[in-house]
Amino acid sequence: MEQSKAKRAKKPVMIMDGGMGRELERMGAPFRQPEWSALALMQAPQSVSQAHDNFIKAGAEIIITNAYAVVPFHVGQAVFDTQGRDLIRIAATRARDCADKAPHKVTVAASIPPLFGSYNPDAFCEDKALAILIPLIEAQADHIDIWLMETISSLKEGEFVARELAKTGKPLWASFTLTDREDKNDPPTIRSENTVENAVKATLTWANIEGILFNCSRPEEMADALSIAATLIPDTIHLGAYANNFKKSMKKGHLANEQITPLNDELTPQDYYDYAVEWRTLGSNIIGGCCGIGPHYIQYLKENLS
User: Fold this and answer.
1) What is d(CA 302, CA 306) in angstroms, rounded to the nearest whole number?
2) What φ, ψ does residue 294 adopt, rounded to 5°?
3) Structural domain count of the chain
4) What's the CATH code of the domain at 89?
5) pLDDT, tens digit (0-9, with 9 covering 90-100), for 264-288
6) Domain range for residue 222?
7) Model pTM greater than 0.70?
8) Core vs surface per residue 68-89: b (16+ CB within 10 A) or e
9) Residue 164 CB: number of other CB atoms within 10 A?
């Protein structure tokens, strides 16, 4: 697979957008916990379009729909039951419109979030999952180019969601969130404590899989995971990373809707670019940002990494 890693590293890099929620916060759009970025869909959907445009102007060639927080975990069961489909559809159509008006080609990735909250794989409940997943699929399918399962920490949930997404026939990218290791000599794991090797091998069996990524983890966690993945996947599969800019580590069981996690003000666009250069040498051809990585980071990547 070393040869395939080298081939992938020679592919043109595709620049993904950054973190929608914190860009909305920076813009002064409606933003708080527990609704997170879904609040803007409810109260100021035009701000979601503006955030997409900000990332596109910075050079993003892939934008992700703002559907991540439109789940009961964030908006509550009552709001999800009465408004969920409409909010998800707004997220998808806003992204599609922005992509279609862009001065360069922009791919729209449909966000499929953890159905029961980020960083908490033990919360997955198969009996309740379809009622959340089906609206996310049906309200986005007609407006997007690819499915992006984000922040996967449970292989059981990932396999369940992948089976449903396969019925649409659209390409699937799967993105895992990584454990914040105290000892970097420990093997990298996803947050369910499955090894990255096991996670990647499992993902390669999913129908329509065309990309394996890592997201919403600290930048320093990405390289080891990418190195392992690059030895396992063929060069026909995209490899990528979009890290967050959180100041503190996220532990298993952390409830992602309880507080707004502080950002690391010391991470500069140059610092993030330096990480991205390493990811690129390991075979990544999709690079962007997650929470706290704003348009100025994406612009720096576009201008220097491409």
Assistant:
1) 6
2) -90, -175
3) 1
4) 3.20.20.330
5) 789 999 999 999 999 999 999 999 9
6) 2-305
7) yes
8) bbbbbbbbeeebbeebbbebbb
9) 16
